[in-house]
Protein 1
Amino acid sequence: MTEFFSALALAIVIEGLVYAAFPEQMKKMLAQLLATPASTIRAVALACAAAGLVLLWFLRG
């Protein structure tokens, strides 16, 4: 469980750094995201989750 929370904390740190480094670009990206159909967002999110699981499987395998 410690590894899970460590990974979650790392993801939050990385996201915070991206927003701190590129605030205007992130605002533009979020505006584009609002205009994107939910089905496209869902497909991309599932593809990212699958890629993450494959990467985790290779790293932890």
Protein 2
Amino acid sequence: MILYTVVPTHLVVSSEYLAREEVPELVEVSLRGRKLLVEPTGPTSGRVARILSSDPADYLDPEIQPGQVVQFTSQHS
């Protein structure tokens, strides 16, 4: 197996590196008919982590780009 990474090898193979890395809680939400994976920052807001869409135009919308904070009304897990 070949592993291409900028992280030093001793950190990649150590369990300490994996243990200290926190995995954020992500929830799937629907925003204007588009499904997004969002890291909640409040009860009705969150930071976009990923766009779940097969429509290329959704990826060009600056309002739902990863990193943007969005407001939503319902959560779907």
Protein 3
Amino acid sequence: MFCRKCGHQLEENALFCTYCGTKVEPAHPAGPAGGRRTARNDSAGPTGGSRTERNDPVGPTGGSQPARNHSVEPNTQNSQAGRRLQNPQGNAKKPGRKKKTGLILLIVIICLLTIAIIAGAVLLFVTQQNKTKQVEAFKKDMSTFEELLENYSYGSIQDEVQKLLRDCESAVKEKAVDQFEALKKRMSLIREELSRISKEISTLEDLKSAYAAAFDKYELSGELEEKVSQVLEEVQTAIDSGNAGGMNTLKEKLKDMESQIKDENLDIISQIFDAISEVDTGQLEKDTVRKIEDFLDEIQAYQDAGEYKNAIAKARELLDFANRAQAEADRKRNESIRESQEEEIRRAEEEARQSALSAASGYLCPESNSRYLTEKDLKGLTDWELMLARNEIYARRGRLFKDTAIQDYFNRQSWYHGSIDPDDFDVSVFNAYEKANIEFIKEHEQ
């Protein structure tokens, strides 16, 4: 039995075609004689007679062949004839349908392939565009990173930075976008390292500036000045190279250097003070001693402020001032001694002259009426003698005295001739010397 739609052979008692899925119609029931009629109808033969059904039995010796029972499934050779007998109309349409179905399938396949090719091309284009954008964005990141490097000194990580730049250039050249994220992370780590190095370099710069300023406050000897210069050069080299790895060592060197310089400066100040202490301030004038004390206050203020260079300069200035003051004091003392000695000689000579003159004339101040008296003239006279010397000027003019002791003294003098009563005495008789000498002697009387 065959499918009436597609013509494929069916299994016996099958309800559906296993090829196209068409439902199988049940077979027609048998005729009254119990046999199946063939799909053919009797028709007139070429002679006009009618043909009997081919399934009518004919004997072997009869003129006719025995009838073929078409209800039996055809064999292989008759399968095509059987299919034509079962469904002659369906068999006429099958070749066209198969051709049309195949063409549709081919078109569908071609369309799918075309869509797949277009989709692949579009995907490839988008992928390439995206990759190009990623490369350009990464190149910008590289450019920003390289600009950042220009602002830093990074000698301590130079090899690492150069390797990163080479890896970035290689990734850009090969458009290896899968490496970009890892390279960006390395850039980020380098940025963090540069920031750390920058802080350390900044610390070194501040440290150098601070110690350079500190060293400038000290007086440096030739050897120490050379050592300081070497240490500061080491610090500057570390700053220029961006290698602050030895920062703690440099700090210790600078600290030790400052301590050594400070001790030396204090020794210098101490030595100057020792020299100043030899100055005998007891021989100096009060103003000079006060100025020395002002110097000492300034020196201490400089030391308290850590300005040892200024303290040493001021101490040397003080030493020079003290030495000059000492020399001046010595000169004045020597001059005073010499003058005192000369004065002693002159006084002795004057006393001898006055004694000789007094002895000859009886006057205490023989020249009181002819010149101005000086300290030397009155030196050595007692208060009583000073009073007599002043009244001697009156007595020389002939005045009498109410005081008996004074009158008795002048009465004993050979040159005295008193005649004028004290109330009648006129001072206008005195010349300029006498008037001045009276006042001068009064100033020395007590």
